[in-house]
Amino acid sequence: MRPLSSAPSTFRNGHTTQDHEIDKQPKVMAIGGNARDVRDRKTPQFATKSHDRGTGLKIWEPSITRPSVRLTLDVMTTCDMSGICPPALGSWRACYDRKGFTLESHRDSPREEETQAMNILDAIGNTSMVRLSKVVPAGCADILVKLEWENPTGSVKDRMAQVVISRAEADGRLKPGGTVVEYTGGSTGTSLALVCAAKEYRLRIVSSDAFSREKLDHMAALGAELTLVPSEGGLTTKKLILDMIETARVLSREPNTYWSDQLNNQDTLAGYYALGEEIWSQTKGEIDAFVHCVGTAASSRGVATVLKRYKPSIRIVAVEPGESAVLLGGPPGPHKIEGVGIGYTPPLWEPKLVDEIVAVGTNDAKEMARRVAREEAVFAGTSSGANVVAAIRVGERLGPNAKVVTLMVDSGLKYVSTDVYRTR
Q1: Which residue among 50, 63, 123, 132 sits deepest, i.e. has the most Cβ atoms within 10 Å of its Cβ?
Q2: Is residue 103 a contact partner of residue 80, using CB atoms and an 8 Å limit?
Q3: What is the set of active-site residues?
């Protein structure tokens, strides 16, 4: 499993390494949320994390100090010479001059510039992308997966929740001291709980016993008030989704309440535009297909909108449960791929952006999630397993010279009590 870089970083002072006449100039590569040593022969690489308030994206920025005989890079983690970077252990400064390389603690060497403090919402986005190898058969395209569990709640839905709340604040639908209401299988609710906790809004969530205990507990831990609608044997069905929506509708009638209504809210699309930009940047435009499960259809549509703008020939492949393949014209049915397959065509579905629909059964999705965890050390949920199954099918048709991108939608930690990972 090999990490892939995102777009090159921008220097704070507007200069590039070419402006600094140094014998061996480090190059900085951003890989998701961690600085990594991507050594150019003998020269270690470092970067520091900052936040661009203009774009809302995180940037890894080297800080260059003149004269040209000395290069200083501020780093928020330390890498050993094997190229392994642990989580941030403090604030450090890496210095390279003609005498060699040194790594100094900021406790001994105070920073020349203050680091702009980030809040929890600034940590959303800029996730890593890795290449799968062991589960991918010979002759298949490269299968690249974006690790969306690196978002604060461990889910891609953090992106959408932040934008939905921000836009509702901006146009007055959500007022200070207001209450947010939503129906959810858990991931959207957890992401909304994160944003509402950070912004001090009350959140009332309608969910069900059909979804994992971890998701329900996570929402409650972040302050959400839960109303649970009983399911039929723990399965996701069309009736369950409609019952949850109606319960949320009743709650939304209370004063000073904003119903985010994810299945109908156009703001959710904008939450995934940055994800599409990241995919284009990290693949350097070398992408032949994007494959993703459909729940509300917002994430697949948001990403597809961006990618098709750059390269209209990119194949957009939608994935749905084999037991409820309604987008393919089949009847709705119960399934156990959480967060997708609502049993009818979602209002945000845009067929003009989709080139192909692939149905994946629950058992195949679960088994692939287990395989990816065991064989690739990529720990994700059931819908991520379905994404990989579908991506491999597409990749086998496209052949070894193609690149297929899909998402690891959320962390496997959300499913450890379920039969996806529970040991007997």
Answers
A1: 132
A2: no
A3: 157, 383
